[in-house]
Amino acid sequence: MSEKDFIFRRERIADAWPEAIGLIKEHYAEIPIHGEREPNPDYDLYKAADETGILRLFAVRRIGKLVGYNIFSVSKDMHCKEMTVAAQQDLFVEKGSRGFGVRFMNWCDAALKKEGVATIYRTVTNHFDYAPALRRMNYELAGAVYCRRLH
Known about the structure:
- The protein has a single domain, classed as Gcn5-related N-acetyltransferase (GNAT) (Aminopeptidase).
- It is built from four helices and five strands; from the N terminus they run βααβββαβα.
- The chain has helices at 13-29, 43-51, 101-114, 131-136; strands spanning 6-11, 55-62, 65-77, 80-93, 117-121.
- A five-stranded mixed beta sheet has the order 1-2-3-4-5, sandwiched between helices.
- The longest helix has 17 residues, at 13-29.
- The N and C termini lie far apart (43 Å).
């Protein structure tokens, strides 16, 4: 597997969705917090967020096949209206195509910066802790997210 086999690019959700479904299921299976629930992503919500300019889908393709994605919500900061922020919603690369995560994240960060994003927030889970890589990329710990299941 050569780095030249991989292409990073921004895509529309409508174009990537048919291939993304399999990856979403694989991603979901790797996260124990979801338990026995099956993934049931809301395509209409994803599509609406994409069409209104909120969603950014950055794809990883290996010889044309979708093998990973990094999804962000991009908006004005509610506390500082002149600043644009990006919040990571998902980051996933299939197991057989891993090994270039920092390069992919740096590429996504550069793409977001080009469109005026001032701050990027990335979420790390206890089940897949890539915080050491983020620290090497000059990310700072900004807080913690806790989850409480009510149903």
